[in-house]
Every structure is written in structure tokens, then in C-alpha cells.
Amino acid sequence: MAYVGFGALWLPIVLSAVIVFIASSIFHVVLPFHRSDYKQLPNEDAAAAALRGVPPGQYIIPHCTHDRMRSPEVLEKFKTGPVCTVLMRQPGPVNMGKFLGLWFVYCLIVGVFAAYISGRTLAPGTHYLQVFRVAGATSFMAYGVANFTNGIWKGEPWSVVVKEIVDGLIYAMLLAGTFGWLWPK
Fold this sequence. Notes:
Number of helices: 7
Radius of gyration: 21 Å
Distance between the termini: 14 Å
Strand order of the largest sheet: 1-2
Shape: elongated
Strand content: 5-15%
């Protein structure tokens, strides 16, 4: 079987990244779909004052080591709460340019993997629907399925996880459609 190399797939990689980038911007900025994903803490000013000065990093409350996880003191802390993961960033204005740039690079990386797997399993001239299936399933693993871990390990609300998975499915279909449309003949 003849394989399809990256040279023949650079256009679907880049164009699908642009399309997904635009779609995600519409989902998160224009549509109301994600507006309820983050809630304001009650008494945000007091919470911010309590956290001020904590260096950037990821923290968990209550903090404990595996050997102390079942100790009466730690169990009481879990019982009375709060139980949370806190992600501290560097103080200062949000640098949306950096975040958007990294998101676009991620979209390119997903496209590269979709191109690699599709290019190694499908021949030139493969029918649109078959390309759509392979590229779509591959990219859905990155855009959609990966979000389950946020609900499992980080406690992200399942309503948010489901929205991220739906987003991921749409992104995967956009990538798959682009690959199917531009697949080498």
C-alpha cells in the first residue's frame, strides 16, 4: 500500500488548525455555551487576600502524603473542607496572546498526529468518509476524550467536562472534514 507523507498533508494540518482555532474562539467568546464554566468565589476579595503571595504552582487542600491520607487529622480536614485544587499563576494581566498562541500550536500538533496516523493507514485516493473516520477518531482522542481526566482527577464539574468533550467532538469533525476534503488523490 502506498502511504501519504507529511509533505502532501501540510495544507490539511494547517487549515484544520486555523478552522478549529476560529471555531473554538466562537464557542468561548461569542456563544453563551461556556459562560457558566467558572463561578465567582463568595467573598472573593478575602479569598484573594488569603492566597496573595503564594508562589505559582498547583496546590491541594488539604495537603497530605499517601502515608497520612487515613490519619484522623487528615480525614477530619477532608470531612470539614474545603477540599480543592488551587492553580496559582504568576501575578499580572492575563496574556491572552500567549494562551491563544499555545492553543494554536496544540491544534497544529493534533493535526500532525492525525496526519501521521491517517497517512500511514490510508492510501492516496481514499474515499472522503474513510479519511474522515480515521482523522476524526484520532483527533477526538486529543480534543475530546482527554478531557475526562479533568473530571476524574481534578474534580472539574462533569457539566463542564461534557461541554469540553462536545467541543472536542466538533473540533475533531472539523479536522476530519478538512482532511477528507484535501486528501491527496
